[in-house]
Predict the 3D structure of the following.
Amino acid sequence: MSHEVVVTNEWGQEFHPSKLYYKGLLGDLCHEKADAAGTVMFTPTERLKYFKFLVSTTKEMSLHFIFRAPPLPYSHNLFALPFDTNIWISCAIVLSLCGLVIWIIMSWEAKVASFAANRQMHNENAASFLDIVMMQIGVVCQMDYFHEPRSTAGKIATFSLLLGFSYLYNAFCARIVVLLQATANNLHDYKALYEAKMDMGVEATSYNIYYFSHPNSRTNEDYRKLIYQKKIAPNNKFLPATDGMRLVQNSYFAFHVELTTASDLILATFNNQEKCAVRKVNSIFKEDKPYLASPINSTVTEYLMIGLVNSHLKSSSSSLKSVF
């Protein structure tokens, strides 16, 4: 029995969402120009009525977004980070209570003749509630304020407020300096990556181009559409692996690429500091093992299935023997 090898330069994808016209390797199988594929392919549900998937000869395709961890301002409001929510709430409560105490004291001072005479000497009106609010804002912003208490109790309350918020202001500034030097380590999935202020790109392989560009069952459709329309399509960010990884190296750029390819380029071109900053998150593609396939109605499908499964089992058995 003779056989012929048919060579094509691409997998080929669906051209139309309802009429599945194929090209490339898939086209050769679909139109029965070939009896079996020599290269593995993905197994979306729309292909099941056209192809018989025989055996998986590889592990799951390891596709990831590769990027260097960006500074915190890329994904956070830096001014809210120095303290957690409870501390911010506590500061607001303390500020409000101190303002209330000072307002009560200064309202009492307005009724005391000696304090009233002193205010008239300096052409100063009695402090209203809004004046106290402005005073609290001045304390928080480390600014001067107009009205000053004249009683000992008022001065003690004001001094305590100023001292407490001076320490708080110093702690806030010191924490900001630390955070400016920190990197964002909370980007654990493509959703967080999309929300961050990072550019994104995709390796220019036929399956990436198709699955990012068209609605399909292999991706999270909501985020596929967002990423493609907002990040990929405007500047055509389908790039060769070398160009994409160069952008990862030189900027804060997330590149969707096969992990082995990315690892080889990182080892070849990144320095140690850049390697330490590299992060990865899972692809928008659903987990899928690629399979060898044949046309659904091929007369040799069963023979291929039996032969490939036996070959796969023998190779697995040999690997186990070599290990043990």
